[in-house]
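pls design
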C-alpha cells in the first residue's frame, strides 16, 4: 500500500523538552514546516537557538494565552503535545483552541508511555494515568482527529536508570524477579515514528503502540546482554515486589509515582503483557523502509556514550 505521509505544518508544545526535542528534529528531518510553542521565560535558550538554525519557527507564548494559542493552531495542520506530566490538564486549553480553530487534521496529546486505556496499575500510577485518560476522552468528545501514542519505555532514560552505564559499579538492582518483559525504544526512534504516524492517514483516530519485537526485553535479558558487552559479571541486588508495593503506599505524593511505575513496568510487565485490540496499530509494522534500533544496538551506543542521567524523580 502506498502511504501518503503528506508534508504538513506541525506545531509542537513542549518541543524543547526531554522528548520534544527529538520530535522537533524528526519533523525537520522529514521535511515538515515545524513550529514550537515555548514559554516567553523558557530557559532552554541553547535548544531554541539550535531549532532556529534548523529553520524551526518559535512561537513565544503562555499556555493560558487563549488568543495566541488559537492563532498558532490556525496556522498549522498537525498539533503534538509533549508537555510534562504536571501540565497534563493544561492540554485542555490546547483542545479548546483546536475546537475553535476547526482546521486541525490531527492532534497527538502528551501520552508517550504505557498504554493507559489497556492497563491497570498501582493506585499512585493509576491516578497519573487517569489524568492522561481524561485528556483522551476530551479529545474524542470534541471530535478532534487524533492519534494516541503508547511509546512505552524511553530506552536511554530507563537503561540508564537500570544499568547506570556511566557509573563504575559492581552491582545492579533488579526489581522483583527480573523476568517480566518490558518494551524499550530509543527516544530518537520515538521522535521519527511519532512524526510519521502524525501524518499517516492509516493512524487517524487510532491508538498506536510502539512495540517492536526486537525491543521486548526483561531486566535479566538486559543485564545478561550488558555483561556480555562489558565483559563484567554484576552482583544482582533484588528488591522484592512487596517492598515496592509498600513504598507505593507509604511514600508521599508524588514520590509514590516512580515506585509505582517501576512496579507496573518492571515487575508486572504492563508494556508487553497485553494483546493489541482490533483497531490498534503496532508502529514497527507500518513502514518497511524504517526500523527501530534494537536494544542490543542501543547498548553498544550507551557503553561508550552513556545517555543523559534519568530524571531526578527516579533517583
Ligand atoms: N515513556 C517514558 O519512559 C517516559 C519517561 C518520561 C516522561 N514521559 C512522558 O513524556 C511526556 C513529555 O515529558 P518530558 O519529560 O519530555 O517533558 P519535559 O522535558 O519536562 O518538558 C517539556 C517542555 O514543556 C515545557 N514546560 C515545562 N514546564 C512547563 C509549565 N509549567 N508550563 C508550560 N510549559 C512547560 C518546557 O518548554 P519551554 O521551556 O520551551 O516552554 C519543557 O521543555 C510526558 O507525557 C511524560 O509523562 C514518558
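designed seq:
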Amino acid at each position: 500500500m502506498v502511504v501518503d505521509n503528506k508534508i504538513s505544518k506541525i506545531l509542537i508544545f513542549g518541543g524543547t523538552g526531554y522528548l520534544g526535542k527529538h520530535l522537533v528534529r524528526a519533523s525537520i528531518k522529514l521535511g515538515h514546516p515545524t513550529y514550537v510553542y515555548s514559554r516567553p521565560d523558557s530557559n532552554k535558550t541553547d535548544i531554541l537557538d539550535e531549532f532556529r538554525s534548523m529553520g524551526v519557527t518559535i512561537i513565544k507564548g503562555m499556555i493560558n494565552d487563549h488568543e495566541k494559542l488559537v492563532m498558532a493552531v490556525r496556522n498549522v495542520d498537525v498539533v503534538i503535545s509533549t508537555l510534562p506530566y504536571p501540565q497534563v490538564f493544561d492540554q485542555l486549553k490546547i483542545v479548546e483552541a483546536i475546537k475553535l480553530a476547526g482546521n486541525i487534521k490531527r492532534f497527538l496529546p502528551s501520552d508517550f508511555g504505557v498504554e493507559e486505556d489497556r492497563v491497570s496499575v498501582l493506585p499512585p500510577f493509576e491516578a497519573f494515568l487517569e489524568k492522561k485518560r481524561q485528556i483522551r476522552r476530551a479529545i474524542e468528545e470534541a471530535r478532534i482527529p487524533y492519534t494516541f501514542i503508547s511509546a512505552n519505555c524511553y530506552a536511554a532514560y530507563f537503561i540508564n536508570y537500570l544499568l547506570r552505564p556511566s557509573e563504575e559499579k559492581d552491582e545492579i538492582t533488579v526489581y522483583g524477579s527480573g523476568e517480566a518483559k518490558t518494551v524499550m525504544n530509543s527516544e530518537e526512534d520515538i521522535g521519527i515514528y511519532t512524526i510519521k504516524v502524525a501524518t499517516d492517514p492509516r493512524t487517524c483516530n487510532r491508538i498506536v503502540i510502539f512495540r517492536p519485537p526486537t525491543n521486548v526485553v526483561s531486566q535479566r535479558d538486559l543485564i545478561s546482554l550488558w555483561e556480555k558487552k562489558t565483559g563484567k559479571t554484576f552482583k544482582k541486588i533484588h528488591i522484592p515486589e512487596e517492598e515496592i508495593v509498600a513504598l507505593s503506599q507509604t511514600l508521599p505524593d508524588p514520590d509514590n509515582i516512580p515506585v509505582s511505575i517501576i512496579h507496573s513496568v518492571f515487575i508486572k510487565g504492563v508494556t508487553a503483557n497485553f494483546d493489541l485490540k482490533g483497531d490498534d496499530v503496532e508502529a514497527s509494522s507500518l513502514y518497511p523502509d524504517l526500523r527501530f534500533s534494537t536494544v542490543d544496538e542501543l547498548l553498544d551506543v550507551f557503553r561508550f556514550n552513556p545517555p543523559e542521567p534519568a530524571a531526578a524523580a527516579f533517583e
